Amino acid sequence: MKHDTPLLSDLAYQRILEALFDARLAMGARLTQGALIAVTGVPLGPVRDALKLLEADGIVTVHPRSGIQVIGRSTDLVRQTYQFRAMLERPAARAFAMTAPEPVLRDMMALHDTAAEGFAAADPNADVGPRLSQLEGAFHSTIIAALGNELVDASYRRLQLMARIIRVKAAVYPRAALVSVGEHREVIAACLIRDETQAEAAMARHLTNALNRNLGVA
């Protein structure tokens, strides 16, 4: 039984996140432990352990005797998330430009070419957010890994959670997805010619543009 508890805690952690990301639990809401037991199907003990992890990640704040407060999307959260991402991803782009094997870069470019074709052919009113999110996750995580820093990797995992919170219930249409893909391609193209300065600049533009899109000013 002792060996089962960590596994149940991990399951509760994942199910709570899934419920937040698919809007079965509301961002910014105050929840009870009972509500989390119901949505996860996991007993109280593992749910409490999961809440400790979620609190450490900044997703919830546990108030003794008064409930669990879930983080909500805000302008400050958007700005802080992208500010921190820029601090990590700009130097990562430089490192990636100098160290990524050419076959990896060419495969990455081919993946983006295929994605662009798919978005261009999609219904203009279709929500392609999940497809773009998958592409974004692979692109940015691969570049961050170029730093070879476990502390950065841990911080970036939390940033990815915040990025998903920012995008909850936000539809992404093919036209916007093509813009993001084009910005990725600029980073990859700079890496292919081993121009670390250009790669960093392209990443900085991409993150600034993404910030503005999330703030509704682009």
Brief descriptors of the model:
single chain, 218 residues, mainly alpha, Arc Repressor Mutant, subunit A, Four Helix Bundle (Hemerythrin (Met), subunit A), 2 domains, 3-stranded antiparallel sheet, 9 helices, 3 strands, globular
Task: Name the CATH architecture of the largest domain.
Answer: Up-down Bundle
Helix-residue proportion: over 70%
Tally of separate domains: 2
Rounded mean pLDDT is 92
Element-level helix/strand string: HEHHEEHHHHHH
Q: What's the total number of strands?
A: 3
Content of β-strand: under 5%
Instruction: Give the helix/strand class.
Output: mainly alpha
* CATH level-3 fold name of the largest domain: Four Helix Bundle (Hemerythrin (Met), subunit A)
What global shape is seen? globular
Strand order of the largest sheet: 1-3-2
Classified in CATH, the superfamily of the largest domain is GntR ligand-binding domain-like
Distance between the termini: 53 Å
Q: Could you name the ranges where pLDDT drops below 50 across 5 or more consecutive residues? A: none
Count the helices. How many? 9
InterPro entries: GntR_C, TF_FadR/GntR_C, Tscrpt_reg_HTH_GntR, WH-like_DNA-bd_sf, WH_DNA-bd_sf
GO molecular function: DNA binding; DNA-binding transcription factor activity
Pfam families: FCD (PF07729), GntR (PF00392)
Protein name: FCD domain-containing protein
